[in-house]
TrEMBL record:
SUPFAM superfamilies: ATPase domain of HSP90 chaperone/DNA topoisomerase II/histidine kinase, TPR-like. Gene3D superfamilies: 1.10.287.130, Histidine kinase-like ATPase, C-terminal domain, Tetratricopeptide repeat domain. It comes from the Bacteria. One of its GO terms (molecular function) is protein histidine kinase activity. It is an enzyme of class 2 (transferase). Its EC number is 2.7.13.3. It catalyses: ATP + protein L-histidine = ADP + protein N-phospho-L-histidine. The lineage of its organism: Bacteria, Pseudomonadati, Bacteroidota, Cytophagia, Cytophagales. It holds the Pfam family TPR_12. This is histidine kinase.
Length: 684
């Protein structure tokens, strides 16, 4: 029994030691602050910081504390705390190699940071997003996010310099990946000098960034052909990572040492440090480190002819690579990143529109001031007339002043008259444009029921003839037969009148459509690629305005060989808008099915062929059924529900392309996969 008690005590001490070793030096103080917190909002922020303190040592603790804080923040409706906790969950997903889910989570956190005006949270989240692209060695977007984070830290004037050290180191590492060593040295040295200031200030929950800075300085030395200096930095990084329990930095430093020894053909040392890196990386697990070190070990044992060990590390490598570089995940990452770029572009457009509205209001205020001045001058003129009647002794002086005032008044009156005329013209033009749109809408709505009435009336005439033949076969009395024949004649005449008046209504509707449509304009030389891309963006923003939750990936593949083409811009624009609208409608319908891993995509392609130019509009929506394909360009034919439109868009587009420009409009489709419309225009 005594021996068993000692064993249990030893196991308990080992568990406590492991728990303590997994903590960063800041973790105990965070636990004490959490226990002493008096408000729930403070508890949320402390839980988020506590989650971050385990990010390089215990992923289960990262998840546990972040989810606990997130649940409390949502219960309180505390948007700032919700953004901080979701950002911590993004760290966990990126370290485990699920980059698309990490990016989606980080973007969600970024929106919450922006809504709560949390500049510090925005900077941290932007830094995390940059690291996702850095992991894929896509340094251009990574640098963009890092610099945005740096500007926010400067704007917020955050007292803790350790966060800025991390951003500066990331910028230097990105320049290092692009082989811009001078720029990398500038930022890495700035980060290294800031570590002393951060150490004196006291490290935050994000820990000590010194191991990260040292290993990147070592990598810079190795890239410039100074291996001895590089090894010194790597060893210093490992020593600095120990007290912080920074297993991620230790894994990276061991990996860099292994790669350096591999380059120097010291295979034993390379294998030794690669195994240490793999062991530390798998304990987190740090997927990026596992990929690099397992690849090193597989190459080393392949060179030695040890096939069993090679196969073992190749299996580890393939498992990690599939988690990190899975093509489907990369596709999702691209689509999410593209949607975020679209969102940022939309925000910029909204800011420009706000500035434009502000200028308009300023002009209106100036106009109001001018009208006020005119009124004051008119009042002054009246007072001057009264003064002239009383002060006849000053007649000459008053007459001169009167002439000056009259001149100013006439000038202002002319300006006011011109302004009223211009305003009346604008109102008239707007009314005429609205009238044209109203006539087109009414015509579209009337045309279908008019055709239906005409068709049913024709059917009724045929039915009356058949009824007359059937009645002739029945044994009826002469009076009854004559009475029924008279009724059938009246009914037949009524149906003929209905057909006649339906034809008249149809001609009226056609006249309204012809009047409301724009007259064929002159052909103008047009940069076709820019024209097509402008209408694609315009239609996409219109679809987004109707459904702000809708996002689609746009892929313009525009051949520079297309150049300039002489077209009627208005007609080609109407045709393109119809095709793009149908494409966005198709992908929205498929998106509503909630298919796994479905990304809405609309592709527009231009290319120059012999004597003609081709424009292809393709979507990955539901496609067109084979039974409906022969009628796709017929009037009033549509696969949409009746409330979605009268089905005239493709018909109008077909006429504008074929009759207006002498081209062709065809369609290719596969049900459930895609639809592609092809416009072919002759080069004149």
């Amino acid at each position: 029994m005594i021996h068993r008690g000692f064993v249990l005590l030893a196991l308990l001490l080992i568990a406590v030691a492991a728990r303590v070793a997994a903590q960063s030096p800041q973790t105990p103080s965070l636990h004490r602050a959490l226990a002493a917190a008096k408000s729930d909002t403070s508890r949320v922020l402390l839980l988020a910081d506590l989650s971050a303190s385990y990010r390089y040592s215990r992923f289960d603790s990262v998840q546990a504390y972040a989810q606990q804080g997130l649940a409390l923040a949502r219960r309180l409706g505390y948007r700032k705390g919700e953004g901080r906790c979701i950002s911590r969950l993004g760290i966990l997903m990126s370290e485990r190699g699920n980059l698309p889910q990490a990016l989606r989570t980080d973007l969600q956190a970024l929106q919450l940071n922006e809504e709560s005006h949390d500049l510090e949270g925005m900077a941290r989240t932007l830094n995390q997003i940059g690291l996702l692209y850095y992991a894929l060695e896509d340094y251009r977007p990574a640098l963009s996010y890092f610099f945005r984070a740096q500007r926010l830290y400067a704007q917020a004037r955050i007292a803790d310099p350790s966060q800025l050290v991390s951003v500066l180191t990331n910028i230097g590492a990105s320049y290092e990946g692009r082989s811009q060593f001078d720029s990398a040295a500038v930022f890495l040295n700035r980060a290294y000098h800031l570590t002393d200031l951060a150490r004196n200030h006291g490290w935050s929950c994000w820990g000590n960034p010194t191991p990260y800075v040292l290993r990147e300085l070592g990598l810079l030395e190795a890239s410039q052909g100074r291996p001895a200096e590089a090894l010194l930095y790597y060893r210093r990084s490992v020593r600095a990572a120990g007290p912080e329990n920074d297993r991620r930095s230790a894994c990276r430093a061991y990996q860099y040492m292994s790669e350096l020894y591999h380059q120097r053909q010291q295979s034993d040392s390379s294998v030794y440090y690669a195994r240490k890196a793999l062991q530390v990386g798998q304990s987190l697990p740090f997927v990026m480190g596992v990929v690099r070190t397992s690849n090193l070990l597989a190459d080393a044992f392949r060179a030695r002819g040890l096939n069993d060990s090679t196969l073992k590390y190749l299996q580890i490598l393939h498992t990690a690579e599939d988690s990190l570089y899975n093509p489907q995940r990369i596709k999702q990452l691209d689509a999410i990143g593209f949607a975020e770029q679209q969102r940022l572009r939309q925000l910029e457009d909204e800011q420009l529109q706000l500035a434009e509205r502000t200028r308009t209001y300023a002009l209106l205020a100036g106009l109001a001031a001018a009208l006020l001045v005119a009124g004051l001058l008119w009042r002054t003129n009246r007072l001057q007339h009264r003064t002239n009647a009383r002060l006849r002794t000053l007649h000459n002086e008053v007459t001169q002043q009167k002439q000056e005032i009259t001149t100013q008044r006439d000038k202002l009156a002319r300006m006011l008259h011109e302004l009223k005329v211009a305003q009346s013209q604008l109102v008239l033009r707007e009314k005429m444009a609205s009238l044209g749109e109203l006539m087109a809408g009414v015509a579209y709505e009337i045309q279908h029921p008019v055709n239906s009435v005409k068709n049913f009336a024709g059917i009724s005439v045929s039915l009356v003839d058949e009824l007359r033949k059937e009645l002739a076969k029945l044994p009826l009395e002469l009076d009854d037969r004559e009475y029924l024949a008279e009724m059938l004649d009246n009914l037949s005449q009524n149906q003929s009148k209905i057909v006649q008046f339906s034809q008249r209504a149809d001609s009226v509707v056609r006249g309204m459509l012809e009047y409301s449509s724009s007259a064929p304009g002159p052909r103008q030389p047009t940069e076709l690629n820019a024209f097509v891309e402008d209408y694609l963006r315009l239609t996409y923003h219109d679809a987004r305005a109707k459904n702000r939750n809708f996002h689609a990936a746009l892929f313009p593949h525009l051949s520079p060989e297309v150049g300039t083409l002489s077209v009627v811009r208005h007609d080609i624009g109407r045709a393109l808008i119809n095709l793009f609208t149908n494409a966005f409608y198709a992908v929205q319908q498929r998106l509503a099915l909630d298919e796994d891993d479905y990304v809405p995509q609309v592709t527009v392609t231009t290319r120059a062929l012999d004597g003609r130019v081709e424009i292809r509009v393709r979507d990955n929506g539901l496609g067109i059924p084979a039974a409906a394909l022969p009628n796709v360009f017929d009037q009033f034919f549509s696969t949409k529900p009746p409330e979605e439109g009268p089905g005239l868009g493709l018909t109008l587009s077909h006429e504008l392309i074929t009759k207006g420009h002498g081209g062709t409009l065809t369609v290719e489709t596969q049900e459930g996969e895609f639809t592609e419309f092809i416009i072919s225009l002759p080069v004149q």
